[in-house]
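Recall that a protein's primary structure is simply its ordered list of amino acids. Everything else, from secondary elements to tertiary packing, is in principle encoded there. The following example makes that idea concrete.
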Amino acid sequence: MDAAFTEEQDQIRRTLRALLRERCDAHAVKAAVRTAPGHDGSLWRLLARRPGLPGLALPEAYGGVGCGSVELALACEEAGRALLPSPLLATAVLTAPLLARLGTDAQCAELLPRIVSGELTAALAVPGGALPEALGLTGTRAEAAGGTRNGWAGGGRAGGVQARHDGEAGWRLYGQVEQVLDGHSAGLLLVAAHAGGCTRGRTLLFLVRGEAAGLTRTRLTALDETRPQARIELRDVAAQPLGGDPGRAADGDPERAVDGLVRLGVTAAAQLAAEAVGVADAALAHTVAYVREREQFGRPIGSFQAVKHRLADVYVRVQAARSAAYYAAWATDRTDAPDRRRDDHEAAVAGGLALAQALEAQRAAAAEAVQLHGGIGFTWEHDAHLAFKRAASDELLFGPVHRLRACAAERDGLFGVASPSAASRTAVAV
C-alpha cells in the first residue's frame, strides 16, 4: 500500500479547501440551511463547474472526472471540515453510484450528465428510516433484503413502499418514506420498494421524477440543519425500474437491487467516515485556537495540563479515524488484485470499522468543543453546536457505533468460523 497521495489528489483537496474557506464560513452555512432547498444552489453549481464535485467518481463517458473512492473521500473530508450544506452526500455518494452501476445505458446517458453538471440532484429513499440496514452497515443480509418480520421494504405487509405493475400504465408506487436526505429538493428520487406480494416478494429500485403526479414531499425539522431531511409520500406515482424491466429474465434477478445497496454501503461507509473526520478535525482546530486566546487566572486556559491532555486525546482519535477512513477508501479502489473476493470482503469490514471510529472521533471532538468553550459554548447559537448537532445526527442516521462494529465483526467471523455460505454473502463487490 502506498500511503502517499498523488499530486492530483492533493490538488483536489487544496482546491476544495480554498473554495470552501472563501464561500462557506459559519455565517454562510447558517444562511444556506434556512433557504428552501437547504443549501446554496449557486455554490453547488460552482462546485460542479470547477472541481467537478458531483461527478468526481463518475465515468468520463458521462462527463465525470473518472476518479475513485479515495478522491471522493478527500472531497467529503473537506466538505465535512466546512460543514457544507449540499447535495453531495445524497447525490454523489448515495444515488449516482447506484445509477451508474445498475442503470441501463439509456438511463445513465440521460441522467448522469445532468448530475455531473449540477443541474440535477438526486436522493435515495429507503423506507422505515433503515438506511444503514439497507446498505449492510448495521444489519445482516436477510435484514437488507427485507426478509425479517420488520423488513424495511415492507415485506408484502402494511408499511414501506409497495410497487405494482398495471399493464400498459407501467409501474406505480404507493407508500411513505421518512428521513430522506435532501428528498424535498432533489429532482430525482431513487426509491426502494417491495413488489410481488408475500409469496414472490422482492425488493426493487425505481426512478421517480421530482415533479411526478401523486408525489408529496415535506421537509422535516431535523436536529442537524446542514443535513435536510424530508418525508416522501407516494400515491399512485409513476415509476421507472432502475436497470430495465424486472419482468425480463436478464433484469429480474431478485437479489440485484439488494446486492447493489449492500455494495454501495461499502463505498459510502468510507465517504461518510472521511466526512466525519473533516468535521472532527475542524472542531478540534477551532477549540485549540480558542483555548490559546481565552485566559483564566492570568494565563491562557490552553496552558493548563488538564486541557492539554483532553485535546491530545481528541487529536489521537481524529488521526486514528483519518487513517482508518483513508484505508477504507483505498481498499474499495482495489480492483486489480489477484484475489478479488478477499479484497472485497476486506473493504466491507474496513468501511464499517472506519465509520464507527470516525463517528466516535466526531462525537468526542464536538463534545470537547462545547465543553472547552465554556459558558459561551453551551449557547445553542454558538458555532460549536454546528459540529455537535452533526455528530449527534450522524450517529442516529448511520449508527449506532456498537452495531457498526458488531456487523463488521460478524462479517469477519471474529467470534466464530463463518460458514462458506455466510462468507459468500458477506463478500460483496465494490
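The two ends are 18 Å apart (CA to CA). Residues 142-150, 418-430 have pLDDT under 50 and may be disordered.
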